From TrEMBL:
<dbReference type="InterPro" id="IPR050769">
    <property type="entry name" value="NAT_camello-type"/>
</dbReference>
<dbReference type="InterPro" id="IPR016181">
    <property type="entry name" value="Acyl_CoA_acyltransferase"/>
</dbReference>
<feature type="domain" description="N-acetyltransferase">
    <location>
        <begin position="31"/>
        <end position="184"/>
    </location>
</feature>
<protein>
    <submittedName>
        <fullName>GNAT family N-acetyltransferase</fullName>
    </submittedName>
</protein>
<dbReference type="InterPro" id="IPR000182">
    <property type="entry name" value="GNAT_dom"/>
</dbReference>
<keyword id="KW-0808">Transferase</keyword>
<dbReference type="Pfam" id="PF00583">
    <property type="entry name" value="Acetyltransf_1"/>
</dbReference>
<dbReference type="GO" id="GO:0008080">
    <property type="term" value="F:N-acetyltransferase activity"/>
</dbReference>
């Protein structure tokens, strides 16, 4: 396997990687308590009565955005021969000296084979070499496997948006979890 910069990400390449999605037997339950003196937001891992399944495909707008971001220098592909087996589409955010991961995907046939870890490691090396201070991403409270993976890669939860997707996210939907890997630091709590 080799990892190299990519300068485009097409609909055909998206299809080559397969469907986006995940299944989970748990989620991070999010609760909020607020009064005049204090606001507390808590996330707690809880088992689900039935598995949660999510499948999606990127929209044409998403793919158009990725095609604009890919040539900026922080997007990488993992290849076996000429076959794309994993991708990270990321963009430098100059005003706060960070890199934002827009899309991260490994072909289902190659998951749990360290492809994703190698993509993240290479992105960290690239960012560090360019003086970037941190890498940011967004995932969902229902995507427990992704949160565990990112923690193993040195990311930590740094933010939660209770209405990122809809106005009812906390009640019956997905809650946005924002994670960050500070360059030069590895999160110690979950290694």
């Amino acid at each position: 396997m080799r990892i190299k910069p990519i300068h485009r990400f097409t609909d055909e390449e998206q299809h080559e990687l397969g469907e986006c999605g995940y299944s989970s037997n748990a989620k991070y339950k999010v609760t909020k308590i607020e009064n005049e003196e204090r606001t507390t937001i808590d996330i707690q891992l809880v088992e689900l009565e039935a598995p949660y399944h999510k499948e999606y495909t990127d929209s044409e707008d998403d793919l158009e955005l990725y095609s604009k971001i890919a040539p900026m220098g922080y997007s990488l592909g993992a290849y076996i021969g000429t076959r794309l087996i994993g991708v990270v589409i990321a963009e430098e955010i100059k005003w706060n000296n960070t890199v934002l991961i827009w899309h991260f995907q490994v072909s289902e046939d190659y998951r749990r084979m360290h492809v994703g870890k190698q993509l993240i490691d290479e992105l960290v090396r690239l960012a560090e070499g360019n003086g970037i201070r941190a890498i940011n991403l967004e995932t969902q409270n229902t995507n427990v496997n992704a949160i565990r993976f990112y923690r193993k890669c040195g990311f930590e939860i740094e933010g939660i948006d209770l209405s990122y997707y809809t106005n009812d996210d906390v009640v019956d939907g997905e809650v946005a979890i924002f994670m960050k890997r500070k360059i030069g630091q590895i999160g110690q709590a979950f290694k």
